[in-house]
Amino acid sequence: MDDVQQPSHSSTLTGWREWVALSEVGIPWIKAKIDTGARSSSLHATNAEEFDRGGAPWVRFDVQPWQRSEALVTVEAPVLDRREVRSSSGHAQSRLVVLLEVTLVGRAIEAEVTLSDRTEMGFRMLIGREALRRGFLVDPARSFLGGKPPKSARRAPRAPQT
After folding, report:
1. Of 12, 64, 101, 104, which has the fewest Cβ atoms less than 10 A away?
2. Full domain range(s) for residue 72
């Protein structure tokens, strides 16, 4: 008999791309690619600045949740680690790692997330195997099983009227 692990009945089905929430850091919607080929999860972060808070390493960074919007969310989080991550092209890069609560298809999990510049990528976030192994099954033929943000949330913020 094969030693194949069967999925548990508590598994959550996800599509190959989903809108996820990082609510604890003020990001209600960000589009993520669900990538079983990637070990770790990754978030598009710019202007990363490390600092010390109470003797512990922290990082402050900006997230642009919507690709065609100027809106930025500034996030502060404790630094969990610094790791060498190899991209799909084979390029190794040292990245900061933070622990974030990620809500994927209605389920909140804590995930280790590397910070990187994903400007040239189609998705602001990538959800990797380490997060998915917490009870998610991926259907590569489906998308947005957790729903889409309301149209009002998809608009770029308007400049204040003067």
Report:
1. 101
2. 12-142
